[in-house]
Design brief:
disordered N terminus, homodimer, 199 residues, mainly alpha
Chain lengths: 199, 199
């Protein structure tokens, strides 16, 4: 960030952009690790940003929360999905997501799907961060639906929603049980794929 | 509570018991609705209990949180499971749980499984309330395992854990999507039962 900012020909934008990104990255990490009730002071301290700078960029903490989830969520989703170059059949592209979740759950730092964590913590369903969370959950379901359709599932829409349930339930189990999944996410997805005629 | 307390022959115990129960019930409702970060003041206000009374009964807010989840959790789990008198085959006893979850998810007050919500919010896996949450999640899995065994599933232990994933994922989906499940929980459980040879 710093080097690209220094290299930017547009000094004003460059000076603003890294502050915004630094704040959002620190916020995403802190909200995930500590919860959405982290105060503005702790947030600014972690990001090395003054409150004044924060309020120049964002109107409220809710605004920071939503923007940080959108930024971190995009990376999280990209990491879950297979790359377009990965030459895999639809069933394997779906299982790739669950294998990635299995490996995430093995880390002691894994505190579950960040979108689910946000939804569970916020309570308020209309909070802008929950709108962001829903958008990403829908994007995952859309991915499953498209692969289910390509793979000839009997009911691609139902299978896609069932796979989202399996994904969220597995992520939740890793949190509630405080242990890695040990193959359960993949086994559950496999059972659903088999039933849907995508064997 | 009040009438049974008045009827109690042991005045000291009777005077203590309703305060404890009132506090735990108010705490459970408040933690569920507002999250685990509710302060002691709000808690005591909602329960109509002084802070002094609270600290005579509990050593800390964490202690209140764990005890309130244990008390509310017991009721929640009992409501989910079929009564022993319900003369149902194992498959229907399992589906009963998912049908109950479907009806819970139709309420605007439903904010997901209280054990999952606690686990997602607390972050600290060793928190006493998370130990309570795990105990109840294990109890649900134990129920599924016993029914799976009675129903002749190929691998009762795997099916029980898959059904717990389906339960948690469905509960999470109702929260993240802010809408009722519309049959998805039951359809997912049915697919898993079919694959496991419990049709």
């Amino acid at each position: 960030m710093t080097s690209s900012a220094q290299a930017s020909p547009v000094a004003t934008t460059a000076a603003t952009a890294p502050t915004r990104e630094r704040l959002l990255d620190a916020a995403a990490a802190l909200f995930y690790r500590e919860g959405v009730n982290i105060g503005i002071e702790a947030l600014c301290r972690a990001a090395g940003v003054s409150k004044r700078s924060m309020y120049q960029l964002f109107t409220s903490k809710d605004d920071v929360l939503a923007a940080s989830l959108a930024r971190a969520g995009s990376r999280y989703l990209s990491a879950l999905l297979p790359t377009p170059e990965a030459d895999l059949p639809p069933r394997d592209r779906i299982l790739h997501v669950f294998e990635h979740l299995e490996s995430l759950s093995a880390s002691p730092d894994y505190l579950g799907c960040p979108f689910l964590a946000t939804a569970f913590e916020l309570k308020n369903r209309e909070h802008p961060a929950n709108v962001v969370a829903r958008r990403y959950k829908d994007a995952l379901t859309d991915f499953f639906r498209e692969e289910a359709r390509r793979g000839g599932a009997h009911d691609p829409d139902l299978l896609a929603r069932q796979l989202t349930v399996a994904f969220d339930g597995s992520s939740s189990r890793a949190v509630a049980q405080a242990q890695h999944l040990g193959g359960l996410a993949t086994a559950t997805a496999t059972a659903l794929l088999d039933t849907a005629g995508m064997s």
